Amino acid sequence: MAEDRTAEGRAADAHAPVPTIDRAELAERLRGPSPPALFEVLPRGYWRKHHLPGALNAPPDEAVAVITAAVPDRHAEIVVYCWDVDCPMSGRAARALTALGYTNVREYPGGKADWADAGLQMERPAR
Question: Is residue 122 part of a domain?
Fold first, then answer.
């Protein structure tokens, strides 16, 4: 059966739930031998201040282009996050990637706030 790519199908995808990852599992995956590709979906200034270890910046207006260029393998493990559970940008990016055929995308809904509240390490880019 062909995949539904009608306007109605794309609209449904835009609101579909996104698989998530919690802080404990993300921390474990980041320490492992094959960490996921991790992207902060916030404007560059937020990423420059500090970000989760190994995260690349994918500003909201460029997120899909940045992530697809960095991770062309549509089966690679990708995790996206933004500020906190009320921030919609990482969920939007995850749904857009899934609609493009990426099969292993998850959102860390707690984001930077949850990570920092737990006292976990943050990185700052070299100046």
Answer: no
The per-residue pLDDT for range 111-122, each reduced to its tens digit, is 999 999 999 999
User: Residue 12 pLDDT > 70, yes or no?
Assistant: no
63, part of any domain: yes
Cβ atoms of residues 58 and 67 within 8 Å: yes
**Alpha helices for the chain (secondary structure H):** 7-15, 23-31, 44-49, 63-70, 89-99, 111-117
Residue 106 belongs to domain with CATH number: 3.40.250.10
First to last CA, the chain: 52
- Note the pTM of the prediction, 2 decimals: 0.87
